[in-house]
Structures are given as C-alpha cells and as structure tokens.
Specification:
The structure is a homodimer of 79-residue chains. Chain A has 79 residues and is of the alpha+beta class. Helices cover 35% and strands 38% of the residues of chain A. Chain A has a three-stranded antiparallel β-sheet. The termini of chain A are close together. The relative contact order of chain A is 0.35. The interface between A and B is medium-sized, with 32 and 32 residues.
C-alpha cells in the first residue's frame, strides 16, 4: 500500500483570491507581519500498488482530472 | 522571514464529499487500486518574524479564523 500526497498550486502570476482574502482578514484580525498567503489544494491518497506506480498514477490523475495545467502546477509526493 | 505551511484536515469520521467524489470519478476514469482519497486544505505563508513566532501565529490563525475545531484538525509546519 502506497500513500501519496498530491499538491496542486496556482502558477506564479495567477490570481489567488482565496489567499488574498485570507491575508486581508488575518490583517483585520490584528495579525502582523503576514507577507504572503497562498492557497494550495492537497489530496492525500492510499493506493494499492508500489510507491513507484503510485507516483506515476498520481501524476496521471493530475493530468486527466485534478489539475488545470493552464493555471496550476502539481507535485506528487510519496509519503 | 519564516515560511510556514498550515494543513487543515477533516477529523476522522467527518464526511468528506470532495474526497469521495474525487475517488468515484478517478474510478470511472479507469484508475484502479485507489483505496482512499482525502481532501486537505493548505495555506502556504511567509511571515516576517522568527520561525518560533511564526508557528505560534499560525496556530492562533487556525483557532481564530482558518479551522473549524468541530470538524477539522490543523497542523502548522515550519519549512
């Protein structure tokens, strides 16, 4: 059994309204020194296969379903 | 400058419709061996303070804004 983490981030330069709004709200709550907030989507998965196959499957999942290659980067991490 | 990752996960036993639907769709696309899919929300932040203070600030952000303690667990990781 392999455990993978799939991280899907916005590419540099793509607007991140969730991150921006979170940062504004944190500031309005009195948090100081917050320089940047980026929102990231993560899927944790258990796959019944080798770690090598799981990494490949995770990357194919991103290409076929999970990520939008125009605005997002993805990374598959075996844990 | 400290960089932290805030991971917000659903507690065990709490329904995860996003994870469930992702798993179903992956299966319908022909991916085999997928045993579980959990959706996780992550915020990457840069904070202008020490790593120790950043970890404390991240935990306070979760308590005050980012996490719902009834259904979610959070973890602050200094990177």
């Amino acid at each position: 059994m392999a455990r993978i983490e799939i991280r899907i981030e916005l590419k540099k330069g793509v607007a991140d309204p969730e991150g921006k709004n979170t940062m504004k709200t944190l500031e309005s709550l009195g948090f100081e020194g917050v320089k940047s907030v980026s929102s990231v989507k993560v899927f944790d998965m258990e796959l019944d296969m080798s770690e090598e196959d799981a990494k490949k499957a995770g990357e194919e999942m991103c290409r076929k379903l999970l990520a939008n290659p125009v605005i997002q980067n993805y990374k598959v991490i075996v844990r």
